[in-house]
Amino acid sequence: MTSWLPLSPAERSVAIEVLVHGPLSRTELARRLRLSQGSLTRLTKPLIESGLLVEAAETGGAGESRQGRPSRPLDVVADSRSFLGFKITADRVYGVLTGLRSEVTGRLDRPLATHDPDAVAALLAEMATGLAGRHPAPAGIGIGVGGRVRERAVVGESAFLGWRDVPLGTLVRERTGLPVVVENDVAALVEAETWFGAGRGLDRFAVLTIGAGIGYGLVLGGSRVPYDEEDRGFGRHWIIDPYGPLTPEGARGSATSLLSIPSIRHQVRAATGRDVGYEEILAGAAAGDPMSSRVVDEAARALGILVAQIANFAMPQKILLAGEGVGLMDVAGGTVRATIRSHRHPLAAPVDLETKVSDFHDWARGAAVLAIQVLVLGRTGD
Q1: Which end of the chain is more exposed for a tag (fewer CB within 10 A), N or C?
Q2: Are 19 and 77 a contacting pair, CB within 8 Å?
Q3: For this UniProt entry, which segments traverse the membrane (predicted)?
């Protein structure tokens, strides 16, 4: 992947600011980066000459004064590069094609008939060819996997795929000829939201995902905090109610036992003998079905406690709630918010909780942002 090298750290900071927040006027860019106009001019000149930055159309309406030099905001050409992102689940692969600002221009999904690493890599290569189409040749590929990833290339462990020490990055690179970066899927989603989503411009930001499991990511100083326990099932050990339900996947009363979709379905199945889908359980709770209502209410209170604890200890400016399970908020959002308030200091500022309904293509977009970051930052490791 051709990176934005060679750039000095100062030049790179200018380019990233425009990429993430642009188009920006020179005045606004200087203010954001705390640079003098002279310093900004010196830094932007080579970026413009190389074509990395361009002068966009003039700002301002026809009635504005034209005294002095017109304001020509700086921008990147978002469609000058394309990127591929993939999210691998137990039974399906989801892929997207994006531009430089992660806007999705194509999407595709295919069934995953086998977990054999070579076969999975071949499927990813086939999907990459199908997604690229007539678009500019992709600059790189990002892959999100539920599991532990080493060196952004090797899947050290993925329980749902049955993988250990699979060099997925190498396998896909050999079949596509493209640079590949592999990362834990929640980490990829956090990176995408930090650069181009709900966390853009924030110093402290947290992401909580509910779905097949419980995921968590923290951003401090505008950068994701990596940690060794990623996908070690932190939700299975975050005890919400020590007397709560026990499921095969989690400790008694853990966040996973109370909140994950498989656990919620397990509780209803154990009580009724019927295998009921998650959406049906939510609909039953909304309609007043006693068993569904009890399980959903417990989940809502668990979510409220979890959000309050994150707010109390991490003190983020915003918490993003994402994943396939966020439909819980539509049915029991009032209980969630009331529980958050009851577990916070009475004078604490309200928690800025944003909810984002995410499908697996959103997770694939998060993986594509990994490839964008490799281009922009010129590195594959943290």
Answers
A1: C
A2: no
A3: none
Query: Beta strands 74-75 and 54-55: pairing type?
Result: antiparallel
Which residues on neighbouring strands pair with residue 183, listed in sequence order?
A: 144
DSSP classification of residue 137: P
Q: Are 112 and 90 in contact (CB under 8 A)?
A: yes
For 353: left if phi > 0, alpha if psi spans -120 to 50, otherwise beta; the answer is beta
Domain 203-316+325-358 superfamily per CATH: ATPase, nucleotide binding domain (3.30.420.40)
| SS3 at position 86 | strand
Distance CA 100, CA 373 (A): 10
Position 84: which residue type?
L
| Dist CA 32 CA 30 (whole Å) | 6
Residue labelled with tokens 């074509």:
51
Q: Residues 287-323: pLDDT tens digits?
A: 999 999 999 999 999 999 999 999 999 999 999 999 9
Classify domain 9-59+72-76 by CATH number.
Answer: 1.10.10.10
Q: What is the CA radius of gyration of the chain?
A: 23
Model pTM score: 0.87
Residue 220 phi, psi dihedral angles, 5° rounding: -130, 135
